[in-house]
Amino acid sequence: MRVKTSPTDAATLMEVEHAGLRFRNPFMVGSGPTSKTVAQLVDAERCGWGATSIKLVIDPPPYINKEPRYRWFEKEQFHIFTSEKRLNLDEGLRLTEGGRKHTKEIIILANITYSGSDAEGWVEMGRKFEAAGAHALELNMCCPNMSFNLDIAAEDGTKRPCSGASLGQHPEAVAHITREVMKGVRIPVFVKLTGEGGSAPKVAKPTITTGCAGIGNGGTRLGVPPIDLYDLKKNLYGLQDEVSMGCYSGPWMRPLALRDVYEIRKTIGAEGTIIGFGGVHNWKSAAEMFLVGADFIGICTETMVRGFGFLPELIKGLKRYMKDVGFSHHREMRDILVREIVTADRVTIRDGLAVIDEEKCIGCRKCELPAHCYAITMEDRGAEELAAAKTAGRKLSRQVAKLEGADCCACNTCIDVCPVPECITLAKGDYHREKYNSPLIASELDRKHGYAEADMPPAVASFVTDGGAKAARLGMPGTFSADLLQDAPKVAYVTQGGNDHAQACAPAPVISVGGAS
């Protein structure tokens, strides 16, 4: 059953005005199989979508244009297709005209590629779609299943046009075409870039300087399809003979798509507009896309699997999240993670180790198996422990996981492979591995010393215990100047004569580690 809502339904209303256009919300049906007929455009509007980008139109007529072959792998969360029908110019113009005639609110973008060798062909296509009623153009520099497919397969490209992902990896060419199209039309021009080859950021910079309405990242990657190891010539599609490269999309793509959007935002700065494509399928993934820099979100694969009707629930969840964290508009979320993500050399690693709840351990040995860490071994429970548990009505496994703290690197793997929730956790804190082989947990510090973690100076990495004394450890011996701790109102914890002292300074001029200050 198709879920439909009224175009005026408040459930999908998150109004955005951009480039002279009013979008009822920032969610767009991405160009693809669900935007190739007027009926689909009407259905998308009824379900509340803010925009739709029509099926790719290629002129001159597509040189790869076959009946589609799709597969959806539910468990792996990826979609793949090997061949696809594109629209020719007349089909695209009729679709645009019909879409404008039968819809009222949804914004219609014409997704176009000129497969000739000159920019004027792009300009002429743009003018025709403007005349047909398109609200905006989306120049396709991303489709990986055209000339790029042949590039990867090492076919000679000298006698065929360079289009899609092949063209989209050339910054100067993309910027030139964009600039020329903008001169020839009055409607907004968006550009959809390929993520292949990591080229999107370097192409985005010169493209956004043309003054175009926005940049989109391609939400697909070309890859080798699943292989039948017992019949290497067998393909995964029905009614197709040969094995061929496939265009991958779906939720699996999300980390790569988020990186594309993040890198584009870092490259073009705060002013440019980005449409984020790739892997968005629920409100959480939508929030992530906004947080790394997207202004709008394009979704295609999920509409192929679930139709258009999931959007109201997605927006409902997103609005609930925004209310919970205090955002009044989705644009307030934009770029937050862009500012928070740091390079690997700036990552702070806190000391700690794994803690095993032996009562919950079922003795499955999964935590013992990882070959990069020998910190956990299995031991037999004592007969007395097993008997006591049986008497108390508790069931315990015969073996239990034990941690050798000196070998634990707090890497999280044992937590992830353990099938029992919260059987293994990580505990923050420092410890003398050789002497104590156990952590000093932050919560224990709180109880023993009335210490609040919020008061800890940022430079103070951890605490150690020795004879009842507590000392601040900054990661290396010696004296540290106050500018290391300039943001901290509570500064130094020092050990003197075996007693525990906390000195409040604002800030302290000098900190001496391991002794008196």
Largest sheet: 8 strands, parallel, barrel
C-alpha geometry = elongated
Instruction: Trace the largest sheet across and list its strands.
Output: 3-4-8-9-10-11-14-15
CATH architecture of the largest domain: Alpha-Beta Barrel
Total beta strand runs: 25
Helix content: 25-40%
Which blocks of ≥5 consecutive residues have pLDDT under 50?
A: 1-5, 144-154, 431-517
Task: Please report which band the strand proportion falls in: under 5%, 5-15%, 15-25%, 25-35%, 35-45% or over 45%.
Answer: 15-25%
Helix segment count?
Answer: 15
Overall pLDDT: 81
**For the record, what is the CATH homologous superfamily label of the largest domain?**
Aldolase class I
CATH class categorisation of the largest domain: Alpha Beta
What can you see in these coordinates?
- With 517 residues, the chain is an alpha/beta fold.
- It has 3 domains: 10-68 and 85-221 and 250-344, Alpha-Beta Barrel (TIM Barrel), CATH 3.20.20; 348-431, Alpha-Beta Plaits; 440-517, no CATH class.
- 27% of the residues lie in helices and 21% in strands.
- It is built from 15 helices and 25 strands.
- Helix 9 (283-291) links the parallel strand 14 (274-277) and strand 15.
- Helix 6 runs parallel beside helix 7 (200-208) and helix 7 (200-208) runs parallel beside helix 8.
Keywords:
elongated; 25 strands; alpha/beta; 15 helices; disordered N terminus; 8-stranded parallel β-barrel; disordered C terminus; single chain; TIM Barrel; 3 domains; Alpha-Beta Plaits; 517 residues
